[in-house]
Amino acid sequence: MNLKNKGIATVFFAAAFAFFCAISPAPSADQESTNAVKLNIGAFEYAKELIKQGHIVPDGRGAWSEHHPSAVAENEFIRLRGFGEYAKWHLGIDVRYSENTKRRYKFPYGDFKNAHRCGMLAAKTRAHQYGYTEIENAASKLIKMIAQ
Q1: What's the number of domains the chain is made of?
Q2: Domain presence at residue 69
Q3: I want to staple 104 with a disulfide (CB 3.0 to 4.6 A). Which of 33, 50, 87, 97 is the partner?
């Protein structure tokens, strides 16, 4: 191969590489956040225990806006019980944030006393909207347990 052909081959290779990079899907912000939020298995197991013990409020869809704990109640619960206990009341963990921050814990389902069906319905709906299949499925299982 002569120098001219090597030059053409190099240009062709560079152009093909640039084209490939341009059409290859890069992870979007949505994909990155979807991958960052995981099912909190400890909270899922804790919710199952609450349901088995009858610590549930079998309320309806839409009631969560009135039943979820306020920021003041959350802060007081954390102050008294710590983030380890706070985590048990959230079906999702956002691994991008530190363990000792409220931002880490997503998809609340109870009021720190009882599991609420409306909280699980809200978690299921939001998880579906954002593509958190594992959390959506966990919330569905909990809702079915309450219905039994």
Answers
A1: 1
A2: yes
A3: 97
Instruction: For the chain, count helices (H), then strands (E).
Output: 8, 5
The owner of tokens 């919330």 is 139
- Residue 71 is encoded by which pair of tokens? 């920021």
DSSP conformation letters of 112-144 = SSSEEHHHHHHHHHHHHHHT-HHHHHHHHHHHH
Q: Which residues pair with 105 in a beta bridge?
A: 93
Q: Is residue 22 assigned to a domain? A: no
Tell me which amino acid residue 10 is. Answer: T
Question: Token pair 């949505």 is at which residue?
Answer: 30
Task: Characterize 28-64 residue by residue with b for buried, 16 or more Cβ atoms within 10 angstroms of its Cβ, and e for exposed.
Answer: eeeeeeeeebebbeebbebbeebbeeeebbebeeebb
Domain with 104 in it: 30-147
The answer to whether residue 39 sits within a structural domain is yes
3-state DSSP percent of the chain in helix, strand and coil, to 5 = 65, 10, 25
* Successive 10-residue mean pLDDT values, the chain, 148 residues: 53 45 43 75 98 91 82 96 97 96 96 95 96 97 93
Q: pTM here?
A: 0.76
